[in-house]
UniProtKB/TrEMBL annotation:
Organism field: Hymenobacter polaris
CDD domains found in the cross-reference section: biotinyl_domain
Protein name: Biotin/lipoyl-binding protein
Pfam families: Biotin_lipoyl
PROSITE patterns attached to this UniProt entry: BIOTIN, BIOTINYL_LIPOYL
Transmembrane segments: none
This protein's UniProt keywords: Biotin
Protein backbone atom coordinates (compact mmCIF):
# COMPACT_ATOMS: atom_id res chain seq x y z
CA UNK A 1 0.00 0.00 0.00
CA UNK A 2 1.35 3.39 -1.02
CA UNK A 3 0.21 6.85 -0.04
CA UNK A 4 0.55 9.20 -3.01
CA UNK A 5 0.38 12.91 -2.26
CA UNK A 6 0.73 16.25 -4.03
CA UNK A 7 1.41 18.00 -0.74
CA UNK A 8 -0.66 18.45 2.39
CA UNK A 9 -3.95 19.03 0.59
CA UNK A 10 -4.30 15.94 -1.62
CA UNK A 11 -3.50 12.30 -0.96
CA UNK A 12 -4.58 8.88 -2.14
CA UNK A 13 -4.11 5.35 -0.86
CA UNK A 14 -3.02 3.12 -3.75
CA UNK A 15 -2.61 -0.64 -3.68
CA UNK A 16 -0.85 -1.73 -6.85
CA UNK A 17 -0.39 -5.44 -7.40
CA UNK A 18 -0.05 -5.24 -11.17
CA UNK A 19 -2.06 -3.44 -13.85
CA UNK A 20 -5.07 -5.73 -13.36
CA UNK A 21 -5.28 -5.33 -9.58
CA UNK A 22 -5.21 -1.68 -8.52
CA UNK A 23 -7.30 -0.08 -5.80
CA UNK A 24 -7.58 3.63 -5.14
CA UNK A 25 -8.78 4.60 -1.65
CA UNK A 26 -10.05 1.03 -1.21
CA UNK A 27 -12.09 0.97 -4.42
CA UNK A 28 -11.15 -1.00 -7.57
CA UNK A 29 -9.50 1.25 -10.14
CA UNK A 30 -10.28 0.18 -13.69
CA UNK A 31 -7.78 1.53 -16.19
CA UNK A 32 -5.79 0.75 -19.30
CA UNK A 33 -2.24 1.87 -19.91
CA UNK A 34 -0.46 2.15 -23.26
CA UNK A 35 3.12 3.33 -23.75
CA UNK A 36 3.31 5.87 -26.57
CA UNK A 37 7.07 6.45 -26.34
CA UNK A 38 9.68 6.16 -23.60
CA UNK A 39 8.29 8.20 -20.68
CA UNK A 40 4.98 8.97 -22.47
CA UNK A 41 1.77 7.05 -21.84
CA UNK A 42 -1.92 7.09 -22.59
CA UNK A 43 -4.19 6.16 -19.69
CA UNK A 44 -7.84 5.26 -20.25
CA UNK A 45 -10.08 5.57 -17.19
CA UNK A 46 -13.78 6.25 -16.80
CA UNK A 47 -14.33 6.72 -20.51
CA UNK A 48 -11.65 9.43 -20.75
CA UNK A 49 -8.15 9.38 -22.19
CA UNK A 50 -5.22 11.04 -20.41
CA UNK A 51 -1.80 11.72 -21.89
CA UNK A 52 0.87 11.29 -19.22
CA UNK A 53 4.52 12.28 -19.57
CA UNK A 54 7.07 11.42 -16.89
CA UNK A 55 9.18 14.57 -16.47
CA UNK A 56 11.31 13.34 -13.56
CA UNK A 57 11.44 10.27 -11.37
CA UNK A 58 13.65 9.93 -8.30
CA UNK A 59 13.17 6.43 -6.96
CA UNK A 60 15.48 7.03 -3.99
CA UNK A 61 13.25 9.80 -2.60
CA UNK A 62 10.07 8.46 -4.23
CA UNK A 63 9.25 11.79 -5.85
CA UNK A 64 7.89 12.14 -9.35
CA UNK A 65 6.98 14.96 -11.72
CA UNK A 66 4.34 14.20 -14.32
CA UNK A 67 2.59 16.18 -17.01
CA UNK A 68 -1.02 15.02 -17.36
CA UNK A 69 -2.87 16.52 -20.33
CA UNK A 70 -0.45 19.45 -20.23
CA UNK A 71 -0.73 20.10 -16.46
CA UNK A 72 2.36 19.53 -14.27
CA UNK A 73 1.81 17.40 -11.17
CA UNK A 74 4.49 16.73 -8.54
CA UNK A 75 3.92 13.59 -6.48
CA UNK A 76 5.49 11.88 -3.49
CA UNK A 77 4.97 8.23 -2.64
CA UNK A 78 5.29 6.72 0.83
CA UNK A 79 5.10 3.05 1.74
CA UNK A 80 4.57 1.60 5.22
CA UNK A 81 8.29 1.83 6.06
CA UNK A 82 8.42 5.50 5.07
CA UNK A 83 5.41 6.23 7.30
CA UNK A 84 7.02 4.39 10.23
CA UNK A 85 10.27 6.32 9.80
CA UNK A 86 8.26 9.58 9.72
CA UNK A 87 6.50 8.66 12.98
CA UNK A 88 9.85 7.83 14.58
CA UNK A 89 11.36 11.10 13.37
CA UNK A 90 13.97 9.30 11.27
CA UNK A 91 12.75 10.17 7.78
CA UNK A 92 15.32 12.92 7.29
CA UNK A 93 18.20 11.03 8.89
CA UNK A 94 19.60 9.79 5.58
CA UNK A 95 18.64 12.80 3.47
CA UNK A 96 20.69 15.96 3.22
CA UNK A 97 18.53 18.75 4.57
CA UNK A 98 18.88 21.95 2.61
CA UNK A 99 17.06 25.03 3.87
CA UNK A 100 18.04 27.59 1.26
CA UNK A 101 19.95 28.33 -1.91
CA UNK A 102 22.26 31.36 -1.76
CA UNK A 103 23.86 33.32 -4.57
CA UNK A 104 27.39 32.02 -5.16
CA UNK A 105 28.42 35.39 -6.64
CA UNK A 106 26.90 38.82 -7.34
CA UNK A 107 24.89 39.08 -10.52
CA UNK A 108 21.54 39.51 -12.24
CA UNK A 109 18.68 37.02 -12.05
CA UNK A 110 17.79 36.28 -15.68
CA UNK A 111 15.16 33.60 -15.17
CA UNK A 112 13.30 31.84 -12.36
CA UNK A 113 12.48 28.26 -13.37
CA UNK A 114 10.56 27.02 -10.29
CA UNK A 115 7.50 27.96 -8.26
CA UNK A 116 6.66 27.73 -4.56
CA UNK A 117 5.23 24.31 -3.73
CA UNK A 118 7.11 22.57 -6.53
CA UNK A 119 9.02 19.38 -5.74
CA UNK A 120 12.57 19.41 -7.11
CA UNK A 121 15.27 16.80 -7.34
CA UNK A 122 18.99 17.24 -6.80
CA UNK A 123 20.40 18.89 -9.92
CA UNK A 124 17.12 20.38 -11.18
CA UNK A 125 17.61 23.92 -12.56
CA UNK A 126 16.14 26.57 -10.22
CA UNK A 127 17.42 29.94 -11.47
CA UNK A 128 19.61 31.49 -14.14
CA UNK A 129 22.13 33.99 -12.76
CA UNK A 130 24.13 36.23 -15.09
CA UNK A 131 27.53 37.12 -13.70
CA UNK A 132 30.59 38.44 -15.57
CA UNK A 133 28.68 38.22 -18.89
CA UNK A 134 28.03 34.49 -18.41
CA UNK A 135 24.76 32.76 -17.63
CA UNK A 136 25.02 30.32 -14.74
CA UNK A 137 22.26 27.80 -14.08
CA UNK A 138 21.84 27.40 -10.34
CA UNK A 139 20.68 23.88 -9.55
CA UNK A 140 19.02 22.28 -6.56
CA UNK A 141 21.72 21.04 -4.14
CA UNK A 142 19.35 18.30 -2.92
CA UNK A 143 15.80 17.14 -3.49
CA UNK A 144 13.07 19.00 -1.67
CA UNK A 145 10.01 21.23 -1.78
CA UNK A 146 10.32 24.86 -2.82
CA UNK A 147 9.00 26.98 0.06
CA UNK A 148 9.45 30.46 -1.39
CA UNK A 149 11.33 32.33 -4.09
CA UNK A 150 13.12 35.36 -2.64
CA UNK A 151 14.01 37.01 -5.98
CA UNK A 152 12.42 37.81 -9.33
CA UNK A 153 13.75 38.03 -12.87
CA UNK A 154 15.83 41.20 -13.41
CA UNK A 155 16.78 41.44 -9.70
CA UNK A 156 20.41 42.24 -8.86
CA UNK A 157 21.74 39.98 -6.12
CA UNK A 158 24.81 39.96 -3.90
CA UNK A 159 27.04 37.04 -2.98
CA UNK A 160 25.45 35.00 -0.19
CA UNK A 161 21.96 36.45 -0.69
CA UNK A 162 19.17 33.90 -0.15
CA UNK A 163 17.49 33.19 -3.49
CA UNK A 164 15.25 30.19 -2.74
CA UNK A 165 13.97 28.83 0.58
CA UNK A 166 13.06 25.15 0.86
CA UNK A 167 10.27 23.78 3.05
Amino acid sequence: MLTISTGLAHGWEVDFRGPAAVTLNGQPFDWQLAELAPGRYQVLHGGRAYTVEVLAADYATKTFSLKINGQRLDLRAQDQLDKLLDRLGLSNAAAAKVNELKAPMPGLIVEVRVQPGQVVQKGDPLLVLEAMKMENILKAPAGGLIGSIKVSARDNVTKGQVLVAFS
